Amino acid sequence: MSGTERNVREIPVLYLVVPCYNEEEVIERSAEVLGGKIRRLVKENKIAGGSKVMFVNDGSGDSTLALLHRIASRDRLFSVVSLAGNYGHQSAILAGMMTARQYADAVVTIDADLQQDIEALDRFLECYQNGCEVVYGVRNDRHSDGAFKKGTATLYYKLMHLLGSKVITNHADYRLMSQKALDALAEYKETNLFLRGLIPTMGFASDVVYFDVKAREAGHSKYTLSKMMTLALDGITSMSVRPLRMISALGFIVFVFSFVMSVLSLVDWAKGNNVPGYTTTMIVSLLIGGITLLSLGILGEYVGKIYMETKHRPRYIIDSIVWQDERAEDQ
What we know:
Order of helices and strands: HEHEHEHEHEHEHHEHHHE
CATH topology of the largest domain: Spore Coat Polysaccharide Biosynthesis Protein SpsA, Chain A
CATH superfamily of the largest domain: Spore Coat Polysaccharide Biosynthesis Protein SpsA, Chain A
Radius of gyration: 25 Å
Strand order of the largest sheet: 7-5-6-4-1-2-3-8
Largest sheet: 8 strands, mixed
CATH architecture of the largest domain: Alpha-Beta Complex
Number of domains: 2
């Protein structure tokens, strides 16, 4: 890009969108760190006044919402979007982005636990000023994860790439999106959200910023194994039809195998070799039965996704918004 193109963009109004679910132990510290970073960026003239931190309460069952209201009431730098129920991490992120795009030139989504390096924002903004509409935050490594999580994550990304998904390895919803990209994202109406796979398909100019993962400031991860499995399954079924094609290929292989076994059985019968064949029968029956049930399960997942999409239910419902129009003051 030429220097002229890099200088076209004005200093942006930036919103940090922070999804929250039962984060009472860390939310005060999160507000302190994120708010401090926004103020420093304003003073350094990297973002415009009016930039904010927008917390999205995803139906928390603890005192998270009360704490967020207290934070927003004493400091106009913070705003709160409260969802009517627990819609899930992806929907909470989308709700925040779609709300923030009305006010911001660029939006960065970041987790409340402060594990994602907030200092990477400077490089995000550099990429934005250089013309990128989307900037992905990618962790340098997974040394902070246990062996099980590290292994399953590596396997998952390899599987997603094998299935044709454009998901970026080790990217976990820490990203910057311009208002232009957000307006385009608003055109996507599917109920089954998998933003990590969906956004890279949009085709806008993008870049990657690498960062180191930090330890949680407080509390514990709310991303349980079942939630991770659900996200993985949503990612596979919403971004690829290759599992259906694999079923067809597997069906053909089983058909060929069954045909060969039938011919061999007929040859043995013609030769008078009446071998009991109990083991062979069991193996073939179990093989075909297992493949059939697996295939029905995969088909069921896709049929279920189709069923939910045809209902056109809202992906989230906003219960309340706490937001002040005044520009943030330097403190």
